[in-house]
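Narrative of activities, Objective 1.

The group set out to show that a structural description can be obtained from nothing but a protein's sequence at a throughput compatible with the screening campaign. Below is one input-output pair from the validation batch, recorded exactly as produced.
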Amino acid sequence: MGNPLLDISAIVDAEFLAKYDMIPNNAILAEDKHKPLYDEMIEKYQVDYIPGGATQNSLRVAQWILKKPNVTVFMGCVGQDKYSKILETKARNEGVNVQYQYTDRVPTGTCGVLITNNGNDRSLVASLAAANCFTIDHIRKPENRAYIENAKFFYISGFFLTVSPPTIMEVANHALKNDCPFMMNLSAPFLSQFFKEPMMQAMPYVDILFGNETEAAAFAKEQGFGTDDLMEIALKITQLPKKNTKRARIAIITHGQNPVILAKDGIVNEFAAIQLPPEKVVDTNGAGDAFVGGFLAQLVLGRPIETCIRCGIWAATEIIQRSGCTYEGEAMFIEE
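Output recorded for this entry:
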């Protein structure tokens, strides 16, 4: 579950970021001052429309790698408009079984993706709109309940904490009761700060937690870990209280071109990222989502965590060579 958004992506200049009080490599929710941003982007720059929303992106990438349609089911709320049609068509074509909740009150959510610094930096400003309207009754419909009953793995982005914590808790309890892995993502620094309560309500249910270096640092600060060492932070995340004692929590921290950190069973390991020449890096926007997609693709096949991480790194490397969270051709991940 997550927030289905249509990404409006463009390469912009630093002045444009500054105009809207935005900083590189950050993710925020749109405020009133950001309302004109989307139209101005469309007017001033060459924009791409790409199906987005972190969770939906991850599932699209997982489907690309798995080469078998409808392994994944995605739920989130959209408006009854052309944007939701674009989203649904694209996601279904890419193998994701989307089961949207529809609202006629507000339009489908959009996310401005502002790319700067030769594609190395990206700043996201999300206008959740319809995504905010998701309600728990959607997962209680018999047909959707059946998808939940049949699922063996559950992944929810941290962004969904701003939308429907009761839904997260209901699914988390179901996963616990059925001993299914429940996974979440820190998703953005502001969530650890301003949505700390629902995040920490869900945390005891989390079997695998993902995050990048800035998200992990913000989380550590809010939790009073007293360290900015990413390896120590990953270890401390695994030691937070946990409901399912049959499996220890795993923490995974991505860090751009630096190694991916894995904390598991009291041990911290690093996995080297694939180094690309700078001219090959087009857009880092979808890297984190793609990493999770690659990871999930191997996890559902029962592969070891190390293989899952290597596939995550491979997927992220593929995605950053294109604009937005997009891909082409056949996924050719080969485990060494």
